[in-house]
Amino acid sequence: MDIHRILKEYWGFSHFRAMQEPIIRSILEGKDTLALLPTGGGKSVCFQVPAMLKDGICLVVSPLIALMKDQVENLNKKGIPALAVYSGMSFQEVKKTLQQAAFGDYKFLYVSPERLETDLFETVLASMKVNLIAVDEAHCISQWGYDFRPPYMRIAKIRERLPGVPVLALTASATKLVQEDICEKLHFGKTQQRFQQSFERPNLSYSVFPVASKQQKLIEILTNVSGSAIVYCKSRKSTREIAELLMMNGIAADHYHAGLSNEERNAKQTAWIQNKTRVIVCTNAFGMGIDKPDVRTVVHYHVPDCLENYYQEAGRAGRDGERAYAVMLHGPQELNELLQQTDIRYPSEALIKQVYVALMNHLQIAAGSGEGMQAELDMSVFAAAFKLNILTATYAIKVLEQESVLWYNEVFFKPSTVVFSTNKQELAEFEHVHPELEPLIKGLLRSYEGIFDHPATVYESQLAKFIRTEKEMIKKDLKKLHDRGMIVYSAQKEKPQLTLLQNRMYLDNYSLDTRNYLKRKKNYEERVEAMIQYAKNETACRSKIIAAYFNDVAVNNCGICDNCIRQKTKAVSLSEFEIISGYILKLAKTSPVSVPEIWAELPDHKKETIWEVIHYLQAEKKISADQAGKLSVS
Asked: Residue 261 CB: number of other CB atoms within 10 A?
């Protein structure tokens, strides 16, 4: 089969999107490849199609657990066998999955980056026939990027074990500096190829509004632009407050952040995707891997700290190609306050050391021990116990993570697991004595194959439906079986998890290499400054500003952002604009009218000026043109 037949058979498409085919050809030629494709640009097809043509299994590295699960589920539905290994799985689950990848007939193995560092993965890797390494969110390997994750550095070491296996690095946003760093850190070969799709989004209108009342402006935007919307906020508290505000004003909204339970997040996300909820008000924990093409508006209620984040999040609007709006709001002091974030995001060496010592004491780790230990960490409890500012504590731990001292997973979900710890004869005797627990025992045995041999992932709500009882009753009965030695029941966990990657340092030997840390701090300051300049700019095309930041200099003025529209209307006085626009709307409302007919009706105005007004009205969707070029009111 060739790539077009695979695309048609498994994905149902007759043609590839822009850039996909040359990227796939590069991989099939065995070349290391860097692909910069916008959010929603079809990155997964770029590695899934060529991997289907090759013998063996494709190793996909991704930090997004929800995305991994979705892609594995979608591939399996297409009849393409795929697996995933991520944080939260038990040792037995990981071992079984890796053995299936090595010795079974599977085409894809999705792996979270921290899993690459385990001895078990290294052992099984030797038995896998890897045909391609796909690195999603590849900017995470660069410490000059906005989302540096040290476990990504492990990929280069894996390459040494897999000579001749090409790497495809995928990202939606990377500056020139980060692009170079990605290729260097992943040990790209001399025949490497790079593909960058234009950052131009011709249907997406960018706007920035400095406002005194964000609440009023937000309601105005969502009232004037119908359809599905996302509102991004910086804090969890804000998401709840703004969603309540919108609901009070008759706009169907809900809030979403990483602090909600896994079930709550899934329910809210599903309701929004199915348009039962019109507006989702969220932190940046929302959106990764979600494919909803008909989002009409993305509003940033607070200014993000970098254009990389802004471009990705704003780019979730208008993936269907229809007109969409990306709006940023900022208050009088917000841009100045953004500059002050540097010292909070990058605390002093003394503060980092203070947080490290407090953390070790909190976890009761003795000096010289602790490597490999895992523990739940409630940041608010930890910060309060040691009288630390919670933001300072959070960012200090982030620094310790980047310096490979520990690993901290804030968005963590570990489902419940059950394994029988008795034999079948003893279990039968137990059932006879405790008939009230028989339905649960039978339900477990019928639902989970191999549950006597290794822990099975169990979802209490599904089990409750299966045996027709309440979820809380299932939990109580599972606890009874556990207490009586029939099963080992590990209830689901959703608190953030911390893993120590090295022993606790003795105070006289405490050391961190702060040279790179200070470079990252300077790089962060430059990203913040670029964001502020974008927000302040009132003349340049916003699409061009964003594209230039990512080294894409071939983009033309979009003609539909606030600055482009402002430049157009400057050429026309307000009074003349009102006369011409009013007359055009009056004519076009009665019946479709051609441009020459408008010129004839307005002989006292220049044709160029009339054109400017027509372009503006079209950009604002006040009028539209038919195939004959005649204008009518939209």
From this structure: 11
